[in-house]
Write a structure and sequence with these properties.
Blueprint (H helix, E strand, L loop, with lengths): L1 H18 L5 E5 L14 E6 L8 E10 L2 E7 L2 E2 L6 E3 L8 E10 L2 E10 L2 E2 L5 E3 L5 H10 L2
């Protein structure tokens, strides 16, 4: 009976994981929503969701752009905020050109990505692409071509 209940529990957990859309993903938001003074001058905040210990997820970011016809990449320093696993993203790239921010999260062997176009008034959430894998060069190029 114990073995049967364990099997039912395992199957139930597997279906729950599928129903939640696969688990691990990144959420981007307005810095004001973080309710943290350190986020005040950030362009956005990011946090990992769908994982049991968000503070153990590893997040990184790179601003990818086209300035005067030339491709540029600027590694970003994400600043940890008071809520564990939540980070502020500050503008570290030039004002000129077209830019997207490529955010990558890693947790327990899984990788998730958010490619976020940056406009004159900040990040463009409605145009962001969320992937359950690392972004490819083609993903970045496509996002840059459609960025405003």
């Amino acid at each position: 009976m114990l073995q049967r209940n364990s099997n039912i529990l395992a199957v139930g957990l597997a279906f729950a994981h599928l129903a939640m859309g696969g688990g691990f993903f990144l959420t981007i938001g307005n810095p004001v929503a973080a309710n943290d003074p350190q986020a005040k001058k950030a362009v956005m905040v990011v946090r990992p969701d769908g994982c049991h210990e968000p503070a153990k997820a590893q997040l990184s970011g790179v601003a990818e752009g086209i300035v005067n016809g030339a491709r540029r990449s600027v590694p970003l320093k994400l600043a940890a905020l008071s809520k564990p696993g939540t980070y502020a993203v500050y503008r570290e790239w030039p004002a000129e050109g077209v830019w997207v921010v490529n955010l990558t999260g890693k947790y327990l062997g899984g990788t998730t990505t958010a490619i976020v176009p940056m406009g004159p008034n900040g990040f463009q959430r409605e145009s962001a692409k969320f992937l359950s894998r690392p972004a490819t060069a083609a993903d970045i190029e496509a996002a840059l071509l459609t960025a405003k």
